[in-house]
Design brief:
- The chain is of the alpha/beta class.
- It has one domain (about 5-260): 3-Layer(aba) Sandwich (Rossmann fold), CATH 3.40.50.720.
- It has helices at about 15-25, 35-45, 60-75, 95-110, 130-135, 140-145, 155-160, 170-190, 210-215, 220-225, 235-245, 265-270, and strands at about 5-10, 30-35, 50-55, 75-85, 120-125, 195-200, 255-260.
- Strands 3-2-1-4-5-6-7 form a seven-stranded parallel β-sheet, sandwiched between helices.
- Helix 2 (about 35-45) links the parallel strand 2 and strand 3 (about 50-55).
- The longest helix has 23 residues, at about 170-190.
- The relative contact order is 0.14.
């Protein structure tokens, strides 16, 4: 029987690591993808029964993504993608955030499409920031974000003069808004092949990246204070939901975004939003 293979990007740490650990129970093999070779190797080596294998790639590099797809196909039948790789506003300038978070997502979904068969699914990580900071009905900006593989995307965003190019936090939020829209559009293409695509928008999850963000953005404390559950989310909680989304139990779920935020959007609505935002 052909092995079923899951691919997890950003799996060296945080939510990606938790997803790789959780999906090892459901798939015959898990490809652990990260730009940090040592982190990817550690994650893969720790998975049970030799199920883990690692692959070093920058998801914004088209050639690296094609090589990842070829490697996945060599291992068996592509079954699921958990695309958690991404960078936040403290990890790069606005151009790099757009390239990794939005362009990288488009490259991955496009490259894996030929491998999609009945029962395949992809989960793309967006963010609650897209709902909080990038919810304006700006059709001109959204039209640009809906063409993430355009070679002149960054130049066109700069010429527009608003949204992602204003500061890294806005670039993160709008890039993730683009991911939500990308997942919905891709679901239309994967559907006839029997595949599903959804996006998820985590809130404040206790990861190294979020800890780094919290030290630089006062708004995160306000969000935590207005989260009904009164705590940070746990990577394992996100991973458990990703496992469900990639399973047959979620077989009629596609083309949508799901908030995993502990109710923070409800809390912010009640508070009238984040002050100054």
């Amino acid at each position: 029987m052909t092995p079923r293979v899951a691919v997890v990007t950003g799996a060296g740490r945080g939510m990606g690591l938790a997803c790789a650990q959780r999906l090892a129970a459901d798939f015959d093999a898990v490809v652990v993808v990260d730009l940090d070779a040592a982190a990817a190797e550690r994650t893969a080596a720790a998975l049970p029964s030799g199920k883990g294998t690692h692959f070093v790639a920058d998801v914004s590099d088209a050639e690296a993504v094609r090589a990842l797809v070829d490697y996945t196909a060599s291992l068996g039948s592509f079954g699921g993608l958990a695309h958690a790789a991404g960078i936040s506003s403290t990890m790069g300038d606005w151009r790099r955030v757009v390239e990794v978070d939005l362009r990288g997502s488009a490259l991955l979904l496009g490259a894996f499409e030929p491998l999609v068969t009945d029962g395949c699914a992809a989960v793309c990580f967006a963010s609650s920031a897209a709902h909080i900071l990038a919810s304006a009905p700006d059709e001109e900006l959204l039209d640009l974000l809906d063409d993430p593989l355009a070679s002149d995307l960054v130049d066109r965003l700069r010429a527009l003069g608003r949204g992602p190019c204003t500061d890294p936090m806005q670039s993160y939020a709008w890039a993730k808004r683009g991911v939500i829209r990308l997942a919905a559009r891709t679901a239309l293409r994967w559907g006839p092949r029997g595949g599903r695509v959804v996006s998820i928008s985590p809130g404040i999850i206790d990861t190294p990246q979020a800890q780094q963000e919290s030290g630089q953005h006062e708004g995160m404390k306000f969000m935590l204070d207005h989260t009904p559950l009164g705590r940070w989310g746990r990577p394992g909680e996100v991973a458990a939901f990703v496992a469900y989304l990639l399973s047959p139990d979620a077989g009629f779920l596609t083309g949508i975004d799901v908030l995993i935020d502990g109710g923070v959007m409800a809390g912010l609505d009640a508070a009238g939003g984040i002050p100054g935002v």
